[in-house]
Amino acid sequence: MRLTLRNIVSFFVARLLIITGFVNRTNQRARKGNYILSIYFHNPNQKLFIRCVKWLQKKGYSFIDVETLKRVVKGEIPFPKGAVIITVDDGWGNNKNNIVSVANQYQIPVAIFIATQPVEEGIPYWWSYIKNARQNEISCCSVEELKKINNEERVSIVAMLQKQLQPLPREALTVEEVQEIAKSPYVTIGSHTVSHPILTKCSDEKALSEILESKNKIEGWIHKTVDAFAFPNGSFSQREIQFLQKNNYRLSFSTEPIYLTEARLKGHYTIPRFEVLENVSFAENICRMSGVWFQRRFIKSK
Ligand SMILES: [Zn+2]
Q1: What is the Å distance from ligand 1's center to 10 Cα?
Q2: CA 56 to centroid of ligand 1, rounded, Å
Q3: Is residue 129, in this structure, part of any structural domain at all?
Q4: CATH number of the domain that residue 71 is part of
Q5: Positive or negative CA dihedral for 32, 33, 34, 39?
Q6: 184 inside domain
Q7: H or E segment at 109?
Q8: What is the whole-number distance in angstroms between the Cα of residue 5 and the centre of ligand 1?
Q9: Number of domains present in the structure of the chain
Q10: pLDDT tens digits, the chain, 302 residues: what are they?
Q11: 3-class SS at 81?
């Protein structure tokens, strides 16, 4: 845990939620089949990921994969009781050791959603240029501000910063690593666009190409069908859902932090998820995984 006032206060709130039984009651409702826990990570260290897996196992959750979720959507199997689905966004290079090796060891399924451009070209994720520029006292907007502007404008700001900065190291998996991890029976590879734009800030042509080209690219790499998607930043509109439907995607994940109920799964292009954070207390992450954190909204997320 990074020792900040926010994290320390959050730790005590989380401990209180655990001690007073909120988390246990959530687990009981999940075991009755009221909902599936839908959880996502980005770039956790191995210790955190193992800790989360062990906690979910100890609480009796069964780990389901994307394929199972698709079968539930089709009505081939009933809505599962006490289930959890684990997804991972972006395609960080560390995922191979910190997530996939753990998934193989503990025999639990994970779905990894990959932005193909950082994988193929070795360039960092676009927000790393912004963070690096700010660290080097080059004046620019914040990452959050850039998420709100038109995509072309954002791209030109990032390109300008890129010229001013020293080359930044690779952050994403390599193509060979994607091919290697895709061979694991526990790993599903999904798409997370090409360049990780905010899709709702893109033109029709750009949004469509981001959705379609990333699918084609990954399928070419791993020789498997890619039909699951995660919206970058959780941002989407009806337009993006239509593009996914028309281009043979079967499921997509948002970042809306609500429980995945049977009713909610019917709209299978907006599957909600709870985010696990990398620098907060484990007590807070227990509350996050079980959804209590978002349900109660004691503390504003991130
Ligand atoms: Zn992402």
Answers
A1: 24
A2: 24
A3: no
A4: 3.20.20.370
A5: positive
A6: yes
A7: none
A8: 26
A9: 1
A10: 888 888 898 898 999 999 998 889 888 888 898 999 999 999 999 999 999 999 999 999 999 999 999 999 999 999 999 999 999 999 999 999 999 999 999 999 999 999 999 999 999 999 999 999 988 888 778 999 999 999 999 999 999 999 989 899 999 999 999 999 999 999 999 999 999 999 999 999 999 999 999 999 999 999 999 999 999 999 999 999 999 999 999 999 999 999 999 999 988 899 999 999 999 999 999 999 999 998 755 444 43
A11: coil
- Per the structure, the complete domain to which residue 42 belongs is given by 5-123+170-296
Interior CA angle at 157 toward 156 and 158, to 5°? 90
**CA 32 to ligand 1 center in whole angstroms:** 32
Residue 190 Cα to ligand 1 midpoint, Å, equals 12
CB 232 within 8 A of CB 192: yes
Q: How far is the CA of 176 from the centre of ligand 1 (A)?
A: 21
Number of C-beta neighbours around residue 182 at 10 A: 19
Q: Is residue 179 part of a domain?
A: yes
The Å distance, Cα 199 to ligand 1 centre, comes to 11
